[in-house]
Design a protein that fits this description.
By secondary structure, the chain is an alpha/beta fold. The chain has a domain of 186 residues: Vaccinia Virus protein VP39 (Rossmann fold). The protein contains eight helices and eleven strands. The strands form two sheets. Strands 4, 5, 6, 7, 8, 9, 10 and 11 form an eight-stranded mixed beta sheet that branches. It has a three-stranded antiparallel beta sheet with strand order 1-2-3, with no helix packed on it. Helix 1 packs parallel to helix 8. The longest helix has 21 residues. The radius of gyration is 18 Å and the shape is globular. The N and C termini lie far apart (49 Å). The structure holds S-adenosylmethionine (SAM). S-adenosylmethionine binds next to strand 5.
Length: 268
């Protein structure tokens, strides 16, 4: 079975104080860079007017990658539906603590959630009871096979508040201004068109609605996941910057992943 695991050799732990300092400095640097770069070739908010094709570079693909570079990061291959069993592995409870993740999101009854790259619904099925019958989860996928597995599991578990959506590689096809929280667990680094996806995700969000990027921590060598399937906090913040999103918080309580939360702001 294809998995995202790798063998870990060495381990380095960065002290929390250093990490917090580097994030604050990084955010400061990004905001100065974005507002002052004279070159017009940084991927700043000004780039919203650049032809999208110039945002990406193509190189020879590395192992697990597609060779397409966005903001200095090689995009990873998509995890195929044949590996769906890996998403439901029992050890995942211990490795990722999905209930703690969902608690951190502070969802409430009636919320509208979009789980982009929903897979088998491992996360969406756990969010389902929290938002209740008055809430809705849009479970977005580009693989119909994943949506079929999700539908089977919903029937087995009697879940009715998840709506499967077959999106495209550029558009999750969310109703405009409708979503309170977009969640992407182990997904964003696989987007072949991250700029277009985020642009359309923002269109689906309400003003004040939140986006949660849940990515394996690149900063932590103890996390035994392949390089291109991990992302640093600063890289996520950098890639969110061209969009009408404001960083809210980063939660580091999960064993392997960070939860990086942004809020949609109104654009003048
Ligand atoms: C590693 S799986 C994670 C599934 C699920 N989020 C979970 O944590 O169990 C990533 C999923 O993202 C989906 N995906 C990749 N690019 C996508 C896109 N542009 N729109 C929607 N889904 C996408 C893939 O098809 C795959 O099922």
């Amino acid at each position: 079975m294809i998995t995202k695991f790798k063998k870990v050799v060495g381990t380095v732990r960065v002290p929390k104080s250093i990490k917090i300092c580097s994030v604050v400095v990084g955010i400061l640097f990004l905001s100065i860079y974005v507002t002052t770069s004279p070159h017009g070739d940084s991927h700043s908010k000004k780039d919203m007017t650049r032809p999208v094709s110039t945002l990406y570079e193509q190189r020879a693909p590395s192992r697990d990658g597609i060779g397409k570079i966005y903001m200095g990061r090689e995009i990873s291959q998509v995890m195929g539906h044949l590996a769906a069993g890996w998403l439901e592995r029992p050890e995942r409870e211990r490795e990722e603590m999905p209930n703690l993740l969902i608690e951190s999101l502070k969802l409430k009854e009636g919320d509208v959630v979009a789980d982009i790259g929903v897979g088998t619904g491992y996360i969406a099925r756990r969010i389902s009871p929290v938002i209740g019958n008055t809430g809705t989860i849009y479970g977005v996928e580009i693989q119909q096979e994943m949506l079929d597995i999700l539908a089977e599991k919903m029937t087995e578990e009697g879940i009715t508040n998840i709506k499967g959506i077959l999106g495209t590689i550029t558009d999750p096809k969310l109703p405009p201004n409708s979503v309170d929280l977009v969640i992407m667990v182990d997904v964003y680094h696989e987007f072949s068109h991250p700029y277009e996806m985020m642009k359309n995700i923002c269109r689906g969000l309400k003003i004040g609605g939140r986006v949660a990027f849940v990515e394996y921590r690149l900063e932590d060598d103890n996390v035994p996941i392949k390089r291109l399937h991990k992302m640093s906090e600063l890289q996520v913040i950098k890639e969110a910057t061209p969009h009408p999103l404001s960083w809210v918080e980063t939660i580091d309580s999960l064993p392997w992943q960070h939860i990086i939360i942004f809020e949609k702001v109104a654009v003048e």
